[in-house]
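Hi support team,

I submitted a single chain yesterday and got back a structure, but I'm not sure I'm reading the token output correctly. Could someone confirm the output below corresponds to the sequence I sent? I've pasted both exactly as they appear in my results page.

Thanks,
R.
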Amino acid sequence: MNRDAQPYFVISVVSKMLDIHPQTIRHYERLGLITPHRTEGNIRLYSRRDIDRLEQICSFTNLGVNLAGVEVIVSLLEKMETAKNEMRREMQKMTEEIMQLNDELKKLREGSDK
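Hi R., thanks for writing in. Yes, this is the structure output for that exact sequence:
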């Protein structure tokens, strides 16, 4: 698991870190804006990524964006990130294919020089 995705922080710590009420964090969870990890005892644990998301949500709401707007923005940002990652994977595959074709071309040229 990515270190940023590892759940470490309980809600009281996150609340103090971000200076927001725990009930606000729970409200964001009910809306689906954040999904913390749950222990077997049903305790919420937040990762660094969750905290970054909460900071992002707070920055939008502080700018006057309502929560419905925040949901749309967050969803679009996630889709953009997914598309960006897919593009990176495709570019990596294409780079590998180009390298392989260059190697094959080099071998063909070496064979024709003999």
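A quick pointer for reading it: The chain has a mean pLDDT of 93. Let us know if anything else looks off.

Best,
Support desk
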